[in-house]
Specification:
Elements: H1 2-7, H2 9-36, H3 46-62, H4 67-90, H5 97-113, H6 117-132, H7 134-143, H8 146-165, H9 179-203, H10 205-217, H11 221-233, H12 239-264, H13 266-292, H14 311-334, H15 339-347, H16 352-364, H17 369-395, H18 397-424
Helix pairs in contact: 2-3, 2-5, 2-6, 3-4, 3-5, 4-5, 5-6, 8-9, 9-10, 9-11, 9-14, 10-11, 10-12, 11-12, 11-17, 12-13, 12-16, 12-17, 12-18, 13-17, 13-18, 14-15, 15-17, 16-17, 17-18
């Protein structure tokens, strides 16, 4: 037994060092916080936490089975409860965060002793961060309204409770309807509404909407267009600011098309990259120009309403189901020669599906690279036309006019670049 301990003494020392380091990290945060709060009497600081972590590590090193670690943990817990009981009797506002942190520190030290260094290190950092976030969390809780809390709870219901129980399989004619995939879009639109709400609240309406457009365009520019346009309809934001966000979202959509083609068919991407580059440049310039022309004083007049709306998301989900059926029917009716028709129909709702399908077929050699590139162009044109109509219908004529002119410029630049690619190369 002695030889075994001597042979593994270096490992034991490393384990104990990690356990003590985790305790010191957590304890130093407590020491710093107590100094900032000018507390005269505190239960545990840097030294106490370091010793608790070391005790957890030592119990794990010398413990035979689970008996010694359990006994030591109960002893530490008993001392912690006694200290809390005493301090709570003299202070009505006494919380239990530090005491819970003591118990967590012991367990993290025990984990380090058993060789779970990553768990101990990550756990120690997590505990220290949570302890340091008392004031930010308090400010957030004070700033939340009843409507915001209720909206957050509704979002959790549709995303955490409803989404997982929906079947992930195809139903209906041609198996074109997937309940979970459709509801996932509902969750995404609701999440975008939250994102736009918080960005506008914390960054100002104009900057918030522009950033929302960029972030939302990474996942679904159609959903972003619906969410942003609804801000104008509800009087939450000005048409010019919303238009900038919508243009930014659809510029990111063009970039996303290039990424999807790069993943499926680099040959098709080579056919289409001049058109994608031209549309991206024009779109980015248009978004910046529109945003720069926004009256920066408008942010002070914005009245932020409900951070989440379910109805627009449900309308979009129904539209997605209808067009999915129509696109599948067209593919079955016209076969390979109906590729452009399928691209046109699919593009009215989502350009990603057509991009992936065309790229995959081009990679397999089922269709030519030129046909794949043209199909994606048609789908993108239909998609951007649809979002121009949505922006006008939901966001009003002013929003639709700015978005429509910008989209027309993007489409014209893309067509010109695509034609030049065919002629010169």
């Amino acid at each position: 037994m002695l030889d075994f301990i001597e042979f593994h003494s270096a490992d034991f020392l490393i384990n104990l060092a990690v356990a003590a380091a985790v305790g010191f990290l957590i304890g130093f945060e407590r020491e710093w916080t107590h100094e900032k709060e000018e507390r005269k009497h505190t239960f545990a600081g840097a030294r106490t936490f370091t010793l608790v972590g070391f005790a957890g590590g030592l119990a794990g090193v010398i413990g035979d089975g689970h008996v010694i670690p359990a006994v030591v943990f109960l002893a530490v817990a008993a001392l912690t409860v006694a200290a809390y009981w005493f301090q709570a009797s003299v202070s009505e506002s006494r919380g239990g965060t530090t005491e819970i942190a003591v118990l967590a520190t012991f367990l993290l030290g025990l984990a380090a002793a058993q060789g779970y260094f990553l768990i101990a290190a990550v756990g120690g950092v997590f505990v220290a961060i949570m302890l340091s976030m008392k004031q930010p969390i308090k400010r957030l809780a004070d700033a939340l309204t009843v409507a915001e809390v209720h909206a957050a709870l509704r979002f959790l219901v549709i995303s955490i409770i409803v989404l997982p129980v929906l079947p992930d399989q195809e139903y209906g004619p041609y198996g074109a309807l997937n309940p979970r995939a459709i509801w996932l879009m509902v969750v995404f639109i609701s999440g975008l509404s939250f994102l736009g709400y918080w960005l506008m609240k914390n960054l100002g309406a104009e900057r918030g909407l522009l950033i929302t457009g960029v972030v939302g365009g990474l996942a679904s520019s159609t959903a972003t267009t619906i969410s942003l346009a609804s801000f104008v309809r509800d009087g939450v934001a000005k048409p010019s600011a919303v238009a900038a966000g919508i243009i930014a979202a659809n510029t990111v959509m063009v970039i996303r098309i290039g990424i999807l083609l790069a993943a499926t068919s680099r040959g098709a991407l080579l056919e289409l990259w001049p058109a994608l580059a031209a549309a991206t440049i024009i779109g980015a310039c248009a978004a910046l120009i529109v945003w720069r022309d926004v009256d920066k004083g408008e942010a002070q007049a914005v009245q932020i309403g409900n951070p989440m709306e379910i109805r627009p998301a449900l309308i979009f989900a129904g539209l997605l189901a209808i067009v999915s059926l129509a696109a599948t029917f067209a593919a079955d009716r016209f076969g390979d020669q109906g590729l452009y028709v399928v691209g046109l129909i699919s593009g009215f709702v989502d350009v990603d599906a057509m991009t992936l399908a065309a790229g995959h077929q081009a990679a397999l050699g089922d269709i030519t690279l030129g046909a794949a590139a043209a199909t994606v162009m048609i789908a993108a044109a239909a998609n951007i036309f649809t979002k121009g109509v949505i922006a006008s219908a939901i966001g009003g004529r002013r929003t639709g006019a700015v978005v429509g002119v910008s989209f027309a410029a993007m489409a014209g630049a893309a067509v010109a670049a695509f034609a030049a690619r065919l002629i010169w190369f």
